[in-house]
Amino acid sequence: MPGTPGSLRVLNDQAAVALLLEHGPMSRNELARASGLSKPTAAEMLRRLEAAGLLREAGERTGNRGPNATVHELTTDRFRSVAVDIEGRTVRSVVVDVAGPAFPVALHIMTEAEVLAPADEMLQAAVARACSAAGVDEDAIVAIGVGLQAAVDHASDSLTFIEDMPGWPRHAVAATLGERLGVPVLLENDANLAAVAERATGAGREAGSFALLQLADGVGLALDFGGVVHTGASGAAGEIGYLQADGAEIGDLVSRGAVEDLQREHDVADPATVDADHPFHRALAARVGTALLPALAVADPALVVLHGPTGIAGGAPLAAATARWLRDRTRWVAAVVPPQVVVAPVLEGVRHRLRAHVLSTMQAAVGRLDTPAPSRIEAQQ
């Protein structure tokens, strides 16, 4: 926006929202120091946010000389969202608050009729379960984020590789669902969301680039380049399950059913109880390494994270066995590690996406304020 008093006021107010989210409750003086603005301007920012219903008093700060300082916090309970992870018939959903309080995850196994139900009904039920578990009013939900076992093309708002979800539209997906549910709906591939979670708080934090192999009912691949997940021209980057290897599709080699067959063959009830030298892990590592070869040949990542239910169950032994197979059988050398985000990783990725979206929503609400401008506006240096 042009550098007018009104535009500078909006930028200052938006900065205040971000600072309050980052630091939690703040006094006027604390906000002034953090923003680099004067105390009168910080006080005016707080007044405007409170008048808009975005701010409330949260007690007093003691311990300094002089009178106690009133601290203020954002009213994030008016800007909550719901994260949903759909994996086969399993639906997990949880309320997300940008300020960080954790809510319980609602777990539901769909019936055959629910699998066939329209997507908006599936999501509405997931939202209702999450809100009930959290004790939150559904009217406070301003967005829904969904992790799917599908390729999501954001440019055309379409889905592909989604044969197992007959009730979902293929075109104008987010637009249609948003219209039916009354709030924006954010869609993303599950492997990409697991990569978002690992980049934020897990194994990918320090990596310049990494690949994440999602080993679940099928197989998916996410490629993170410097903190940006590469989705491709049509959202189908990483859909390697249909590639042929050793006379079979890669998805069939490392699917959940194939892994369970290997466990029975080697009499392994729990992969975590056997080490990397066990015949089970050696056999599975050969299949996982074969699945990784396309990513290694094209992207040459420095790090590979083995994720999904199989990667989590296999842990460090499977990662070590896979690294050894690659070193012994191929020309590619990559560090192979187990995941660090092992509790609802797809939901955690959705949480990160929703928090960024809701922060933008709150800052946009600041930009629509029509209260009078303060007499003196300072631009943040």
Automatic annotation (TrEMBL):
One of its GO terms (molecular function) is kinase activity. InterPro entries: ArsR-like_HTH (IPR011991), ATPase_NBD (IPR043129), ROK (IPR000600), WH-like_DNA-bd_sf (IPR036388), WH_DNA-bd_sf (IPR036390). CDD domains: ASKHA_ATPase_ROK (cd23763), HTH_ARSR (cd00090). It comes from the Bacteria. Keywords: Kinase, Transferase. Belongs to the ROK (NagC/XylR) family. This is Putative NBD/HSP70 family sugar kinase. It comes from Amnibacterium kyonggiense.
